[in-house]
Amino acid sequence: MSALTLSSSSAATLRADAVVVGVTKGPDGPVVAPGGEPLDQAFDGRLAGVLETLGASGGEGEVTKLPAPDGVKADLVLAVGLGDAPDGDGPYDPEALRRAAGAAARALAGRKKAGFALPAGDDASLAAVCEGALLGAYSFTEYRGKDDKGGKSAAKGKKDGRGGDGSAPLAEVTVLGAGSRDKAHKAAAERAEVLAAEVNRARDLINTPSNDLFPKSFASAVQSAAKEHGLTVEVLDEKALAKGGYGGILGVGQGSAKPPRLVRLSYTHSKAKKTLALVGKGITYDSGGISLKPAGHNETMKCDMSGAAAVFAAVVAAARLGLRVNVTGWLALAENMPSGTATRPGDVLTMYSGKTVEVLNTDAEGRLVLADALTRACEEKPDAVVDVATLTGAMMLALGGRTFGVMANDDAFRTVVHDSAAEVGEPSWPMPLPGHLRKGMDSPIADIANIGERMGGGLVAGLFLKEFVAEGTAWAHLDIAGPAFNESGPFGYTPKGGTGCAVRTLVRLAERAAAGDVL
User: Fold this and answer.
1) pLDDT tens across 337-362, in order?
2) Cα(206)–Cα(497) distance, rounded to whole angstroms?
3) How far apart are CA 340 and CA 348, in angstroms?
């Protein structure tokens, strides 16, 4: 990850390869945002005019590069659009700053150091700029196959440090106008570093191909992180799962040569008063099983473990931040493959809860592994449970590729989760759990079927999961099928591929629980 420093230097005096300045949309053209005054002076007050001549408008995410004039120690000036300026002297929208910093960092791939002279006068704005720059500079380089001379690398998985365009990601981010001696500024920057590192941890896992990331190797990665950060970890292998009666996880994983795992990762604080349980769907590859996905729908299915990656990263982040809340993560890991040993449509599974499920569609597998993990998580009587999953294509049809759905058994808790997502800039939308859809999952031979009515499929999946949540336990379900994996081009601080969606929402929820605001 890029290094992060704070500096009280001005945009004109910082020694760097580039300096970033914000631009807003004004009634008569672009306007240089606060923080860019020294650069404007170096342009003799004509920076906005030069940018307008180059076609800049100040629109959100717009990037314009120009050579630095005399008097500026950096070689390059990068102007990034912030959109509309806030009313009066109010602060800038943190998400606009986050996205602008991310867009600038991406545009500066290959540079060693860049100064960010964006409006960062308060702690929230400073944190947003730090987060955005560090997240925007992300690049997954594990499988780059060329050496510095352009030939094939001798070692599989060689890290050459290059981004998607062949350039190294920005090496150092320096946020200007903030002193490293200011305790509040330093704390905001340190939190941003932790968040970015853990979001990027999730991204790395999501981007790793399934031949290298499977239940056992995923569990090993969790064990390594647990050792590093002083967390408690327990891994149930296929024998332990069979002994414990985890029929859902075993039923999904039995068709694969890579057996399933259930991982419990726990962070505790001696002064914690609340406990939050997080449950993640970890299907390391989803072929659909016997209900095989058609061509065109399975090429990105390595990302079907994004929920487990988010839960893993969020627990580590809570530990690194020292939050006064107990957080337990449950990672339900399996590979859904067709074979002679795979679960067949029409089979009945006995779940960990004792309920029986008629499997009518083996491609509705995520809810089966989650059901076992939810039941197990509720046994520890947490104050609340949140599950995260790339669960349904129906949710993508409903909300698109950038927004996740939030369902819950308690409207107030659903609002808490939705608000937490909004605070950190992750788009979400509250969704209902209409009781009349439950009847569609009635089975003539089992307690419940794993699918129901086609219309409202995302809500049906939520209703299925609700069946496995203990009575009286606050529960929320995050269907991140849309935003978990970005198949289009990068935007703002969001890269192509794994996004790390929901990590920041979960961390914010844990922070609020630690502060006593929720639960």
Assistant:
1) 999 999 999 999 999 999 999 999 99
2) 8
3) 17
Tokens for 31, please give them: 């306007």
CA quadruple 144, 148, 151, 156: dihedral positive or negative? negative
Give the whole-angstrom CA distance, residue 120 versus residue 415.
29
pLDDT of residue 180: 67
376 catalytic? Reply is no
**Hey, what are 455's tokens?**
């219309």
pLDDT at res. 88: 80
Q: Which two tokens stand for residue 309?
A: 């990656």
**Beta-carbon contacts of residue 24 (< 8 Å; ≥ 6 apart):** 30, 31, 33, 58, 81, 82, 83, 84, 85
Percent of the chain with pLDDT over 70: 96
Residue 367 is among the residues annotated as catalytic for this protein: yes
**257 CB-near residues (< 8 Å, 6+ apart):** 337, 339
Q: Are 21 and 33 in contact (CB under 8 A)?
A: yes
CA 58 to chain CA mean position, Å? 28
Say what the pLDDT of residue 146 is.
Answer: 59
Neighbours of 168 (CB within 10 A): 16
> Which parts of 172-214 fold into alpha helices (H)?
183-207
Please state, in angstroms and as integers, the Cα–Cα distance from residue 112 to each residue in 3, 169, 454, following that order: 10, 8, 52
Residue type, 120: A
What letter would DSSP give residue 291? Answer: S
User: Are residues 463 and 394 in contact, defined by beta-carbon separation less than 8 angstroms?
Assistant: no
Catalytic residue among 191, 367, 414, 512: 367
CB atoms within 10 A of CB 296: 6
CA separation for the pair 5, 469 (Å, rounded): 45
Among 158, 186, 216, 293, which one carries the catalytic annotation? 293
Helices (H), 322-435: 366-378, 393-399, 411-424
Place of tokens 């307690």: 447
AA letter at 262:
L
Residue showing tokens 């002064």: 271
